[in-house]
Amino acid sequence: MIAVYGAATSGNCWKAAQILRLTGQPFDWVETDSNGGATGTSAFLALNPNGKVPIAVLSDGSVITESNAILLHFAEGTLWLPPPGLARTRVYEWLFFEQYSHEPYIAVARNLTTYLKTADQFPERMAQCMARGAKALGVMERRLSGHEWLTDAGPTIADLALFAYTHVADEGGFVLADYPGVAAWVARLSALPGMTTLRRAR
Ligand SMILES: N[C@@H](CCC(=O)N[C@@H](CS)C(=O)NCC(=O)O)C(=O)O
After folding, report:
1. Residues flanking ligand 1, CB < 6 Å
2. Cα 53 from chain centroid (whole Å)
3. Residues 37, 18, 51: CA angle, nearest 5 degrees
4. Which ligand 1 atom sits nearest the alpha carbon of residue 32?
5. Which one of 102, 151, 177, 186 is least enclosed by Cβ atoms within 10 Å?
6. How many whole angstroms separate alpha carbon 41 and alpha carbon 38?
7. Which fold has domain 2-75?
8. For a substitution probing ligand 1, which of 34, 35, 97, 106 has the most ligand atoms within 8 Å of its CB?
9. Domain ranges within the chain, ordered by starting residue
């Protein structure tokens, strides 16, 4: 059985669980409180020296780290990942965009605002997150105002990777209504069979 170590409120961790659900691969979920220090224990660091969730542990004990590597691994051979060639390269473009230009700002703004509740202590960091997060949503809007999905291959792990923090971007102070193509894409993706959304903070 595959085991996924993750935090229930994390978009990165949602990606790992979601691709397994969509591809019908059973797994055990091991709740791991990344905001509470559970990723810094020696037991966890033995699994991932980088001290971050998600990780997926395969039945032979192999550990896969990095949410987008996990998406790629479990999507192989399914419609969620096109075959090698330009169609797959388009997916890679969005996966790298997500990790460098989107997640570091939108996920961090969300975590500081809604979960750690320390946004007031870091005004400069928050300002950078809001500016760069808005830029990332603008890039997505340019594509999604004229297309149903991020690539021409239909819904892929590129869409899952970007959905993870976009659909809860309001928890970081972003207003999705300002990006109507993105908002329509969130609704379209949410309506696909087997899709789930993140638990909301209350
Ligand atoms: N690039 C990594 C980022 C993972 C990440 O930032 N995980 C957070 C939770 S969403 C974490 O474990 N943080 C704990 C820490 O950095 O100490 C991925 O995509 O998997």
Report:
1. 7, 10, 12, 34, 39, 51-54, 66-68, 99
2. 12
3. 25
4. 12
5. 177
6. 6
7. Glutaredoxin (3.40.30)
8. 34
9. 2-75, 86-196
Pairing of strands 2-6, 27-31: parallel
Q: What confidence tens digit (pLDDT) does each residue in 49-78 have?
A: 999 999 999 999 999 999 999 999 999 999
Ligand 1 centroid to 52 CA: how many Å?
Answer: 4
Strand order through the sheet with 2-6:
27-31, 2-6, 55-57, 63-65
Distances in whole angstroms, Cα of residue 160 to Cα of each of 106, 121, 133, 182, 195: 15, 32, 18, 13, 10
Span 76-99, average pLDDT: 98
Report domain 86-196's class: mainly alpha
Provide the CA 17 distance to its chain's centre, in angstroms. 10
